[in-house]
Write a structure and sequence with these properties.
CATH topology of the largest domain: GROEL, domain 1
Structural class: alpha/beta
Shape: globular
Number of strands: 17
Strand content: 15-25%
Distance between the termini: 13 Å
CATH superfamily of the largest domain: GroEL-like equatorial domain
Largest sheet: 9 strands, mixed
Helix content: 40-55%
CATH architecture of the largest domain: Orthogonal Bundle
Length: 542
């Protein structure tokens, strides 16, 4: 049978409407959730993944985001839901380092509860608006329940975040203790099978790359440069010729360069084009902050890397800059929103005098915001940087361990920033139990449905953890239990979850819930779905 020829530029679409379309979306969510949620908790199971892109073609993992990324479905509508779930998981992982599986479990529960409790008579828009509003109330309750992390709890958080690997958890916790609360921890691949950490000096800048063309680590959207020369200036670079004196030796000697300065779009594009076409190893970031704070921060950066600071405020002429005026860092990690400059401990740059000056300024300052700003500058200059080198007996083992350590490092950082909660889904369970005690008779119909959708879904992480351990909520939990008390499925005992070392970072739980609600609301409010029309060749020889 001859196929009909389509006119040039014609891209046919398939359309799905109403319940039929939503049911396919729910089917897609169910499939990816089933693949991912069995990994949740200490009794979670591993997943085998076939892939042409890894050594040996096989991955064995308990990492939720790795499992999620491996799922692609044939049906285009079902796969749209999968792609949305992947995005929710990825957003949770990138912002908090953990909680990907929790985000997927919550999304599935929210969508199924919404589908169950809403019918043709329901004002969907009003209900879903109430769900979003009530989610913020839940997050505020979580924030009030969170506790600051201590050194003792630091190890517990690190072990849990590393999928209960005590050895890896100890390396992470010890590294954070070494660099202090103002320090930064990064993860690298080890040249040996051993996993260990080292601390060094460095500085963090709240600015990222000015063009995605500078990225050379696509997985993390970062530009990573080793042994880097650094230009620091607040004078706008509006012409490449203005920095010709330093570009020539950089290009001729195949050096690497980081420019921290304001720059016109044309110059950024010119440099980025040379990175892509000619392999130039250069990156550009803008100056941090604005006004007088920018000037102060740029001075700090220049001091920390041993660079001469070229400033319009002091009448410096950027065209007079020489190669000798550049600073240096052993490594620069430039992300989308922030950058880290790492220096060796013996590079000859001494920031102690600068830190001493800042402490004197702190004593003199009378304004609270000025004092806080000075303290942040001191922290930036004096905070250490820890590097965890991840080893492995094989490439597969090293890759799996690297991803696990990288996620755990982010999760520990999140815990240090926003505190910790009783883990294992107990914090969310307690919020549901307190909600049940409230009088709901006076609530509107939409509000009642919205609350039921949200709060019934908050049980799902705890339910899944228990299910993976071969148990149920009714078996181990009484409605009137004390807040924070729960059942340790690994050691089969009851107690205060935090005291038993079963902990979730507040930021992880918050982000997982927010991302889950975002995806669920989108799916439950969808009434029309448009996908590219597919044609499939038959393998039938008849």
């Amino acid at each position: 049978m001859n196929q009909m020829q389509m006119p040039s530029g014609f891209n046919p679409k398939d359309l799905s409407f109403g319940d039929k379309g939503r049911n396919k979306l729910i089917s897609g969510i169910t499939q990816i959730a089933n693949a991912v949620k069995s990994t949740l908790g200490p009794r979670g199971n591993t997943v085998l993944i076939e892939s042409a892109y890894v050594t040996g073609g096989l991955t064995v993992t308990k990492d939720g985001v790795t499992v999620a990324k491996a799922v692609d479905l044939v049906d285009p509508v079902e796969n749209l839901a999968v792609r949305m779930m992947k995005q929710a998981a990825d957003n949770t992982a990138s912002s908090a380092g953990d909680g990907t599986t929790t985000a997927i479990v919550l999304t599935e529960a929210l969508v199924k509860q919404g589908d169950l409790l809403m019918d043709d008579t329901t004002n969907r828009a009003e209900v879903l608006k109430e769900v979003v509003s009530e989610t913020e109330i839940v997050i505020e309750k979580l924030r009030k329940a969170s506790k600051k992390i201590t050194n003792k709890r630091l190890l517990d958080v690190a072990v849990i975040s590393a999928n209960n690997d005590k050895a890896i958890g100890k390396v992470i916790a010890d590294t954070y203790k070494e660099v202090g609360k103002n320090g930064i921890v990064t993860v690298e691949k080890s040249e040996s099978s051993k996993t260990y950490s080292e601390s060094t000096n460095g500085v963090k800048i709240e600015r990222g790359w000015t063009s995605p063309l500078f990225i050379n680590n696509q997985k993390k959207d970062e530009c990573v440069l080793d042994n880097v020369e650094i230009l620091v200036s607040d004078a706008e670079i509006s012409n490449v010729l203005a920095i010709e004196n330093i570009l020539k030796p950089i290009i001729n000697e195949q050096k690497k360069l980081l420019i921290i300065a304001p720059m016109t779009v044309n110059v950024v594009n010119t440099l980025a084009a040379n990175v892509v076409k000619n392999g130039l190893q250069i990156c550009v970031i803008g100056p941090p902050n604005f006004g007088y704070k920018q000037h102060e921060l740029m001075q700090d950066i220049a001091v920390s890397v041993g660079a001469k600071y070229f400033s319009e405020k002091t009448g410096d002429d950027l065209s007079l800059i020489t190669y000798e005026d550049l600073g240096h860092a052993d490594k620069c990690i430039i992300g989308k929103e922030s950058s880290i400059l790492i220096k060796s401990n013996n590079d000859g740059v001494d920031v102690s005098e600068r830190v001493s000056q800042l402490w004197n300024a702190h004593e003199i300052a009378t304004n609270k915001s000025d004092k806080e700003f000075i303290l942040s500058r001191i922290a930036s200059l004096s905070g250490g940087i820890g590097v965890i080198y991840v080893g492995g007996q094989t490439d597969i083992e090293q890759k799996e361990l690297f991803d696990r350590v990288d996620d755990a490092v982010c999760a520990v950082r999140s815990a240090m920033l926003e505190g910790i909660l009783p883990g294992g889904g107990v914090a969310l369970y307690d919020i549901v139990e307190s909600w049940k005690k409230l009088d709901s008779d006076k609530l509107s119909k939409s509000k009642k449905i919205a609350d039921a959708i949200l709060y019934n879904s908050l049980y799902s992480p705890l339910t899944q953890i228990l299910e993976n351990a071969g148990s149920t909520i009714t078996e181990h939990y009484q409605p009137n239990k004390a807040d924070g008390v729960g059942y340790d499925v690994k050691n089969e005992m009851y107690g205060e979850m935090i005291d038993m070392g079963i902990i979730d970072p507040m930021k992880v739980t918050k982000n997982a819930l927010q991302n889950a609600v975002s995806v669920a609301v989108t799916i439950l409010s969808t009434n029309a779905i448009i996908t590219m029309a597919r044609t499939y060749e038959s393998n039938d020889s008849n």
